[in-house]
Design brief:
hpI Integrase, Chain A, 315 residues, mainly alpha, three-stranded antiparallel sheet, DNA polymerase, domain 1, globular, 3 strands, 4% strand
């Protein structure tokens, strides 16, 4: 098995990659290493040649991996060998310049505005009521759970922050006076994301309810479970999926869909692309411009329905 420890340390210490990115690199490289050992009896990264990498890519395509996954895996191997090359561990990068499978053009998946309104209807509909026969303690926990879950989902939609960014939020990251969140994004880049008056009120209510639960030692996190522990990515995924399942039939239901939804709705309602870029924390405008395609598709649909020359009406 090839040794990836040095590369791992480089990603964490120098590149300051997120834990999710580091894990993806390691999984891809371990898969590549296993293939080299199994099919070519190669255990030393210096023995890998371009034909070996091409053979691995071909095997991935034969196993029906998506083109996007193959791209990512090749990028992982390429980054690993760039690191080795810089450190004099190899004489050449066997992944350099290899052709990649063509990527299909995919628009970001987002929830329609009329469906998103259902989130706020659920917020009121499912709130524990005064007629609830639960004991005071149970009702208090239910109220806390409901507010926390609806707050998480609507915060994703109203700010466009990433899953890891929400997990990293602490109490002190909420500025109630100015009305903004301090968010630690990719590669430890700090940015400030505005929140509205209604969202500030929800956050204040949530913090009061959280305090009333008497959790004891703080988890060091803004959002906690019913037992006062820091929430994790699985909790977020399941919470978002549950809420989106009640308002849409779309297959993909994740925090990132709400991020796409935020950006698309902002653009559709007249927000400047550069403003969206800053809020999302994109490093370049090109990453944000993908949302213009959704808006163009919407305009084309409206034009097709509304323009008199497209309405099968005799002139």
């Amino acid at each position: 098995m090839m040794d990836f420890d040095g590369f791992h340390n480089y990603l964490v210490s120098e590149k300051r990659s997120s834990p999710h990115t580091v894990e993806s690199y390691r999984n891809d490289l371990e898969q590549f290493s296993a293939y080299c050992e199994r099919d070519f009896e190669i255990r030393d990264h210096a023995e890998v040649t371009p034909p070996v990498v091409r053979s691995w890519l071909a095997s991935l395509m034969e196993e029906k991996y998506a083109a996007t996954s193959v791209h990512r895996k090749l990028s992982s191997v390429n980054a690993f060998y760039k690191f080795l090359l810089r450190n004099g561990k190899v004489g050449a990068n066997p992944a350099h310049g290899l052709p990649k499978p063509k990527l299909p053009k995919r628009l970001p998946t987002f929830v329609e505005e009329h469906s998103i309104k259902g989130l706020y209807a659920l917020e009121k509909k499912n709130a524990p009521g005064a007629s609830d026969e639960s004991t005071h303690g149970e009702k208090s926990t239910q109220e806390f759970s409901h507010l926390r879950n609806t707050l998480i989902v609507t915060l994703f939609y109203e700010t466009g922050i990433r899953r890891a960014e929400l997990l990293g939020l602490k109490d002190e990251d909420v500025d109630f006076y100015i009305g903004q969140l301090k968010v630690l994004g990719k590669r430890n880049k700090m940015r400030y994301v505005p929140i509205g008056k209604e969202m500030k009120g929800k956050l204040e209510t949530y913090l009061r309810l959280r305090e009333s639960q008497n959790f004891g030692q703080k988890a060091g996190s803004l959002f906690v479970t019913d037992k006062g522990k820091k929430i994790n990515k699985t909790f977020l995924q399941l919470t978002v999926k549950s809420y989106l399942s009640d308002i849409t039939t779309m297959k993909k239901k994740s925090p990132h869909v709400l991020r796409h939804t935020f950006a698309t709705h902002m653009l559709n309602n007249g927000a400047d692309l550069n403003v969206i870029k800053e809020i999302l924390g994109h490093s370049s405008l090109a990453a944000t411009q993908v949302y213009t395609h959704n808006s163009i598709e919407k305009l084309k649909s409206i034009h097709s329905r509304m323009h008199p020359r497209n309405n099968n009406v005799n002139p």
